[in-house]
Amino acid sequence: MKKLISILGSTGSVGLNALDIITKKKKIFIPHIFSANKNFKVICKQISKFKPNYFVINDHKTFVKALKKFKKKKTKILN
Length: 79
Known about the structure:
Elements: E1 3-8, H1 13-24, E2 29-36, H2 40-50, E3 54-57, H3 60-69, E4 76-78
Parallel strand pairs: 1-2, 2-3, 3-4
């Protein structure tokens, strides 16, 4: 049975290490909620690769940029 996983600070060192594990154990985890502050480049890579159900972005400018870029994707981007 797959488990939903949420990662707070997905662009930081602990978050990136957790995502490495998720990549290796795709059959076990479903990416559900990710959060980050303002590393736009890494946020975009994570949305494209993992397709989490929700991505919470703390920085408003980064949120607006990501919302424009991914408005037709499955991932809901929140601020």
